[in-house]
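Example S7 (structure tokens).
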């Protein structure tokens, strides 16, 4: 009974909506309609199209205008209703985008049928989600550009402490997208391409023991499969949008990857740069294995000692100790020297005692969790294969969603 009633009520609603749309689509216009080329356009009478809405299909007629000079056409009614070049209403697109961003496109289709009584295909969900993801990416990029172009920071309150953190994670790709991409597999081919994800959040308080607490609901995400250079501007733009100019102290948190460091130096030169403590510990464990791997007990003892030194930020002492115990075996020696070089190069980013004294985060858990929830949960399910275009659209969609900015986006479209 309730399902049948829902169908009837929706059909009723669709009729009411059709009447309202008829008024929006045609009728006398006060303003003249201008072409992009500047010419005044001429009315060509009404044209019909069927709109798919959350109430079901709705017949809709609207005036068409044509430019006498360049023959371009415009439908002012479509522009007012935000249905230019699509037969799907904004309300339906919004549901489809959400459904497609949350789960597989097939699951999205089933959810829409069960929750909303809407019949769409999985391919439809994919197309709509992808298009909206692209539009969201353009929207957020334009917003960042606009903020960067503004003269000075807005006269708002200072932000005491901002964290910028970013990382990479592999996304499984279709064969065609992997040509020329080097991989770690035995045959030298890659199965994935790296998506870069960044986040910005603030911190103002610490708990009773002096450990930092992330300000609730301040984390925003940006990401894409793109070069480090392009991504650098993306994360910088996001930090700027979040008020970088008003920030008193900036912290860049990441693993020890070279691109992470390079972007920090280029875009956040006055930031305190910190290597994630757990990554640093892993490097030390690796070093201990190289130096003392032949003696299990000793290796464990050394590892604990080195970790304690690391916590104290005494990287020079760790390096000195390692140099004194370099193995004779040439391969092991080389490996040890690589680790020593890594420590030496990054020592200023491993002053954990100092960072802790300043009550700063020293772990990049937020961005690592982000890689799982923003990207992994949706894009790395078994059997999935993506194109760069499709993956980037869904990443953009999920970044906007996980940044709690979906409503901002739809409001900007209404405006
Ligand atoms: Zn024209």
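Recovered sequence:
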């Amino acid at each position: 009974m309730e399902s049948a009633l829902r169908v009837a009520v929706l059909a009723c609603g669709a009729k009411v909506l059709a009447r309202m749309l008829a008024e929006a689509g045609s009728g006398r216009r006060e303003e003249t309609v201008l072409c992009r080329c500047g010419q005044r356009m001429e009315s060509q009478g009404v044209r019909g199209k069927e709109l798919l809405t959350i109430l079901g299909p709705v017949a809709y007629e609207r005036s068409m205008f044509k430019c006498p000079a360049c023959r371009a056409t415009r439908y002012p009614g479509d522009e007012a209703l935000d249905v230019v070049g699509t037969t799907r209403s904004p309300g339906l697109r919004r549901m489809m985008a959400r459904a497609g961003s949350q789960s597989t496109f097939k699951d999205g289709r089933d959810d829409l049928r069960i929750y909303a009584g809407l019949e769409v295909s999985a391919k439809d969900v994919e197309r709509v989600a992808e298009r909206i993801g692209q539009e969201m990416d353009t929207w957020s990029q334009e917003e960042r550009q606009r903020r960067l172009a503004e003269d000075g920071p807005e006269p708002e309150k200072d932000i005491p402490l901002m964290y910028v953190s970013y990382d990479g994670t592999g996304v499984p790709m279709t064969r065609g997208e992997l040509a020329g991409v080097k991989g770690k597999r035995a045959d030298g081919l890659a199965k994935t391409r790296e998506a870069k994800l960044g986040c910005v959040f603030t911190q103002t308080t610490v708990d009773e023991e002096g450990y930092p607490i992330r300000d609730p609901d301040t984390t925003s995400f940006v990401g894409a499969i793109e070069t480090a250079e392009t991504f650098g501007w993306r994360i910088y733009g996001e930090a700027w949008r979040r008020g970088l100019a008003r920030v008193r102290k900036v912290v860049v948190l990441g693993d020890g990857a070279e691109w992470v460091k390079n972007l920090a130096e280029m875009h956040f030169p006055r930031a305190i740069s910190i290597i994630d403590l757990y990554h640093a510990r892993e490097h030390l464990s690796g070093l201990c294995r190289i130096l003392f791997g032949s003696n299990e007990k000793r290796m464990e003892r050394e590892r604990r000692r080195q970790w304690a030194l690391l916590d104290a930020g005494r990287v020079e002492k760790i390096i000195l100790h390692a140099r004194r115990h370099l193995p004779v075996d040439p391969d092991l020696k080389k490996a040890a020297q690589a680790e020593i070089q890594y420590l030496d190069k990054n020592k200023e980013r491993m002053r954990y005692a100092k960072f802790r004294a300043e009550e700063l985060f020293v772990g990049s858990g937020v961005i690592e969790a982000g890689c799982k929830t923003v990207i992994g949960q949706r894009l790395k399910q078994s059997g999935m294969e993506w194109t760069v275009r499709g993956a980037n659209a869904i990443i953009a969609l999920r970044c906007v969603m996980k940044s709690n900015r979906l409503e901002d986006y739809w409001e900007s479209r209404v405006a």
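Notes on this example. DSSP finds 15 helices and nine strands in the chain.
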